[in-house]
Automatic annotation (TrEMBL):
It holds the Pfam family SET. It comes from Rhizopus microsporus. Residues 35-92 form the SET domain. This is SET domain-containing protein. It comes from the Eukaryota. InterPro entries: SET_dom, SET_dom_sf.
Length: 117
């Protein structure tokens, strides 16, 4: 993710908000090459839906995860960022809550349908 304009400290990037959807037994791992973040929250796996999954890791990141609810995350700027600079997040040192899985498009459509109702 790259900043298109200068960003000040403490700014929330609400247009990059992402939501967790609980994974179920029907959502098995697939065979295509779509990558999704899977977060373990309250002993259940959740898929992270939204643009937040496209942010790269940075050991000296300039943004951090901010929670707006128990299942909604928004990146928050923690150091001034100039237009053209990459916005990065620190995922943590081998965080137990973060894994990447591959999910088929058909399974993704099942997840999406949960939000369409």
């Amino acid at each position: 993710m790259v900043a298109t304009k200068d960003l000040d400290v403490s700014k929330h990037l609400v247009h990059c908000a992402s939501t967790m959807a609980r994974m179920t037994a029907q959502l098995e791992m697939g065979e295509d090459e779509t990558c999704w973040w899977v977060i373990n929250h309250r002993a259940q796996n959740h898929v992270l839906l939204g643009p937040l999954r496209f942010f790269n890791h940075g050991c000296r990141s300039n943004a951090k995860f901010a929670s707006h609810s128990s299942k909604k995350f928004v990146p928050r700027i923690k150091a001034k960022i100039k237009a053209g600079d990459e916005i990065t997040l620190f995922y943590g040192r081998r965080p137990p809550w973060f894994r990447i899985f591959i999910i088929t498009v058909s399974r993704l459509l099942k997840i999406k349908s949960l939000f369409d109702t």
